[in-house]
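Methods — Computational structure assignment.
A single polypeptide chain was analysed. Its primary sequence is given first, followed by the predicted tertiary structure written as structure tokens.
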Amino acid sequence: MNAPLQIVSTYHPTDMPWGGGNNFWRALLSQLSEQGDIVFRPLKDEPKENPPHADIVFFNQVNSGPAENSRMYTIQDFQKIKQLYPRAKIVVRAINLRKHSRYKAKLPYFLDFPDRTKDNIVKYRVNTADFVIYQSKYQKDFFEEFCGPTKDSDIIYNGAPLLFAEKGKQAPHRKLTPGQPVRFLATSFSGNPSKRLGLIARLSELPGVEVVHAGLWHENVDKRKVKTLGTISHEEITNYMRDADYYLKLSENDICPNALIEALAYGLPVIYDVDGGGAAEIGRPFGIAFDPANMNDMLDVARQRHQELAVKIAQNREQFLITYAANAYKNVFKKISGLT
């Protein structure tokens, strides 16, 4: 029997509500650690406090974690980590590029030094890694346009914590009937303009529509008839999923929206951003494209296809779960470690 794979993780998740990426990483580490043949250890700032051996150093994000206590790993940090573990394989989970995600920029990209610095770190990391994991084909395409072709890589969608599937299977199945309002659930951790909150607000004013939003709502966007909940826990979100007919995901440039995957794991059909991106790539077989120019027609289609989509999601629920994603990650780890 082979000894457990020793993996050093550079990203330290938090148990606080802190966005889909953090939730996914926390669930992934937990799922892989439970299997017994992988041991995860956190990277410490002090070299002598780190484990003496690692088969793999696993990078997620540019920072060491969420919240105010995190710091950004520089190119020099990356080189020092490689020196600390010269025999380890470097696996990088690619994140969004600032060149691609521009919603916070006050300056053009070529003038915005912090954005370009962060992207240069990501580019260096991707180009020097032994293996890169992309979260969608959409992400891989724009990464390779910016960073060049990847030596060795795979596309692995994120997975939802098992809680969502468990709650979804227990929930009573609601069929849309004529005259009933169509109930939408939307979520957003950041509340930034790329989440298209204005379109969500417009939808809320149509007759026969109810919209609930969990997370932050931008103070400059009129809520109209949207019921806002503020930031709530996973457990609380599943309670609102129980009362929803569709999950609404209209974010621009979303590479692999964790919240959409969580809704699919629960069993909710989705309405996804008409401009494509990761939400469309993942959600297209299980939902409807949002049409801002013909929202009433879109609602008619949503009513007609709700039952069909709900059945299709239930038949494919496994592919949205963290167990599915964890097995794909595990196969990558074994492959680059020479165990397969």
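Note: The mean pLDDT is 88.
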